[in-house]
From TrEMBL:
Source superkingdom: Eukaryota
Pathway note: Carbohydrate degradation; glycolysis; D-glyceraldehyde 3-phosphate and glycerone phosphate from D-glucose: step 4/4
Keyword terms, alphabetized: Glycolysis, Lyase
Organism: Volvox africanus
InterPro entries per record: Aldolase_TIM, FBA_I
Enzyme class: lyase
Name this polypeptide is given: fructose-bisphosphate aldolase
Entry-linked Pfam families: Glycolytic (PF00274)
């Protein structure tokens, strides 16, 4: 089993390949569709996913696709299962298995844990039977001068490790996502300190729970300043320097791949920063992992804009999807250079940051709170 998991993880982190994060929940993708002027119906969601999964040549740049449960069981308009269509392109199917965020009892204001451990083993076995090869679980950590608290760091690290162990026992490679939120005024240096602390705790928890590091992947945020930080954004070289330094201090060489989330950066910024990280890793050395991508909006925003304007423009939308995948593949090799016509994004300069991706406010005694699970939907508060 361990050898099989390591083989799958290595393929997912193959040189120049990354993950398409298309695991938005029904509510989250619905908000994006509705913003684009489309109804949030199952057929529209299925057609939008089909656009990506049937793009000719997508397997040259994408090794795996993370899906929401609904999508894992869907098929093309012609009746072929998405899982099988992707496999024909050499792309593995993955599945989001967490159930969203809830307020962390005893934690600081806005701190959360992730729900879904109860019943996870049975669900994972079901997903394996449906053709899934890997899974993803997202935790979030809020940054201020005093946060994240020790409780939030340790609780989320332990839950991520428990999830990872269950996945591996069921035959799934776990993608471990401790997302450090960009919301706030924190500096890049503060973000780097928190990154080291969170990733270090997560790796230690993986070790304690007996997770085979060779058979899992990490999905962190790049080390960037808070979205409201004084001075604004920093150069790609600074993103690379801080990110690589943090990873070298806490990520063991046994982990095959670090698959960055795009986290509200523009499509072009995500590509340029990923390229700079790989160039920096080559210069400083001793960076044994693949440094690649697990992008959602940074691979989808321009495509959705085009397709939503005219759903008959599937071929054009697929060409755009392929172009976005290609430039990020180049960036994952440290070989990106701006094409003559510019980055393929049609939204250059537009931030992809959405509303707060964690939770804000004090936990009430009961009822619901405005929790953001992967991209914006309200989640019932846990008791």
């Amino acid at each position: 089993m361990a050898a099989d998991l390591a083989s799958v993880a290595a393929k997912l982190a193959a040189p120049g390949k990354g993950l398409l994060a298309s695991d938005e929940s029904t509510g989250t993708i619905g908000k994006r569709l509705e913003k684009a002027g489309l109804p949030n119906t199952e057929d529209i969601r299925r057609a939008y996913r089909e656009l990506y999964y049937t793009t000719p040549g997508i397997g040259h740049y994408i090794s795996g696709v993370i899906m929401f449960k609904e999508t894992l069981y869907q098929s093309t308009a012609a009746g072929r299962r998405f899982v099988d269509v992707l496999a024909d392109e050499g792309v593995m199917a993955g599945i989001k298995v967490d159930e969203g965020l809830a307020p962390l009892p005893g934690g600081g204001e806005g701190e959360t844990y992730t729900k879904g451990l109860e019943g996870l083993e049975a669900a994972c076995r079901e997903y394996v039977a449906a053709g899934a090869k890997f899974a993803k679980w997202r935790a979030t950590l809020k940054v201020t001068d005093s946060l994240p608290s020790d409780l939030a760091v340790e609780r989320n690290a332990d839950d991520l490790a428990r999830y990872a162990k269950i996945c591996q026992d069921c035959g799934l490679v776990p993608v471990v996502e401790p997302e450090i939120l960009i919301d706030g005024t924190h500096s890049q240096a503060r973000f780097g300190d928190v990154t080291e602390r969170v990733l270090g705790a997560t790796v230690a928890a993986l070790w304690r729970h007996g997770v085979a590091l060779e058979g899992c992947l990490l999905k962190p945020q790049m080390v960037i300043p808070g979205a409201e930080a004084e001075g604004g954004k920093v150069a790609a070289e600074e993103v690379a320097r801080h990110t690589v330094a943090a990873l070298r201090r806490v990520v063991p060489p046994a982990v095959p791949g670090v698959m960055f989330l795009s986290g509200g950066q523009t499509e072009e910024e995500a590509t340029i920063n990923l390229d700079a990280i790989n160039k920096e890793a080559r210069v400083v050395g001793r960076c044994p992992w693949a440094l690649s991508f697990s992008f959602g909006r940074a691979l989808q925003a321009s495509v959705l804009k085009l397709w939503s304007s005219d759903q008959t423009r599937v071929t054009e939308a697929q060409q755009l999807a392929l172009s976005l995948a290609r430039v990020n593949s180049e960036a994952a090799l440290g070989q990106y250079s701006t094409p003559a016509g510019g980055h393929p994004s049609t939204l250059t300069g537009d931030s992809l940051r959405e509303n707060f991706r964690g939770w804000s406010g004090q936990a009430p005694a009961g009822g619901t709170v405005p929790l953001q699970g992967g991209g914006g939907e309200e989640v019932v508060m846990a008791h």
